[in-house]
Amino acid sequence: MAPSRFNPSQIKNKIKRDEIHRAAKREKKQAKLKRRLLQAEKERSDPEAKKERLAANVPKTQDNMREYDPSMLTVNPTTQNTTEDAGHNVDPNQEANLDMDNDPFASYFDSDADPSIPPKVLITTSPKATRTTYDFCDELVGIFPGAEFIRRKKGKGFEIGVIAGWAAGRGYGAMIVVNEDMKKPNGITLIHLPHGPTAYFKLTSVQLTKQIFGHARATPHNPELILNNFSTRLGHAVGRMFQTLFPRLPEFEGRQVVTLHNQRDFLFFRRHRYAFRSPEKAALQEIGPRFTLKLRWLKKGLPAVQNLGAPPPKLQIADEEEENTKLGSNPINAPATDEYEWQWRVT
Predict the structure, then answer these.
(1) pLDDT tens digits for range 129-170
(2) Angle at the Cα of 300 from the Cα atoms of 299 and 306, rounded to 5 degrees
(3) Basic and acidic residues bias located where (predicted)?
(4) 271: how many CB neighbours lie within 10 A of its CB?
(5) Is residue 238 a contact partner of residue 230, using CB atoms and an 8 Å limit?
């Protein structure tokens, strides 16, 4: 195409202007194709040229452009290769080990109970949930081996904090509340029992098992759990919180694996079954469901139950010999205010 003496946008005739624009776009596309073909032919004869191009053209992502932070459980890349700091670097996992010894989940991992017995998980919904949310809760019951779904009742006295205290007194190890908006599930509140913490995740990109083409059927075996890229102290705490939802000892004969992949601060959930087709390769078949989580906040303890209109309680003297007559019931009261450990972008 011959160079134009004027800008095509100055052409007043719309049909002629579109014709020139399409011709220029076609010519640019052909030139790019020729350039790529010549580059591919050159790299076939010289493999080192391709390696140099790939090494130079590294895409910039949020993960590889993130600056090192002391909360990361990895070695500082700026001091990793220096000889003058050798022997003086602090182990990045030292603080993480102290956190694991003193966090609320330590009792679960240090327990002497049978590791093959799954922890009890209570799953419920927000008030007035719809059929779509109930279908998603059915999927969650199939994911966690010890899960149980209880329909949430309406009215006062069924706040999340009250239900969490009730579940903690009956031996539940965790509680999951699925929230919905516009008749679609849009959030998950995960509560570790009996004393917290409480985390809220934004829920997006939900696909049920029946919506996945060629999905596999789930079996009642305890799945394996893979936590990928939880490399900060906050991520380590969230990962251990998810670990408490599964039994410590999986059943490998089921060949089921649950994956939580952290990328760009999003948690991608997938569930697969693997099969060894040969000694070198393994085949994967997705079971479902699939969804994406994003942590919004993390609070200490159970969710607060605020009753601003209630009068203050009367002063009472406790009787030391008074005991709870309800067999197997040890309710835990929810706090009156929330205390945040972490919150997303507080302004």
Answers:
(1) 999 999 999 999 999 999 999 999 877 778 899 999 999 999
(2) 80
(3) 38-54
(4) 21
(5) yes
| C-alpha to C-alpha distance for 168 and 150, rounded to whole angstroms | 15
Q: Which residues contact 124 (CB under 8 A, 6 or more apart)?
A: 137, 149, 150, 151, 152, 163, 175, 176, 177, 178
Distance of CA 39 to CAs 6, 30, 31, 315, Å?
Answer: 33, 14, 12, 84
Residue with tokens 């932070």: 69
CA of 198: how far to CAs of 175, 204, 333, 340, in Å?
Answer: 9, 20, 15, 9
User: Is the pLDDT at 13 greater than 80, yes or no?
Assistant: yes
How many whole angstroms separate alpha carbon 284 and alpha carbon 273?
6
Q: Around 247, how many Cα atoms within 13 Å sit in the side-chain half-sphere? A: 18
Report cis status (omega within 30 of 0) of the bond before 197.
yes
Say how many C-beta atoms besides its own lie within 10 A of residue 111's C-beta. 11
Of 230-234, 272-276, 342-346, the range with the lowest mean pLDDT is: 342-346
Mean pLDDT of 291-316: 81
The full DSSP string for 161-220 is: HHHHHHHHTTT--EEEEEEEETTEEEEEEEEETTT--EEEEEEEEEE-GGGSTTPPPP-S
d(CA 332, CA 339): 17
Helix axis angle, 233-243 to 94-102, nearest 10°: 40
As a whole number of angstroms, the distance between CA 205 and CA 211 comes to: 12
What pLDDT is attached to residue 298? Answer: 93
Strand pairing class (282-286; 266-276)? antiparallel
**Rounded Cα distance, 91 and 74, in Å:** 9
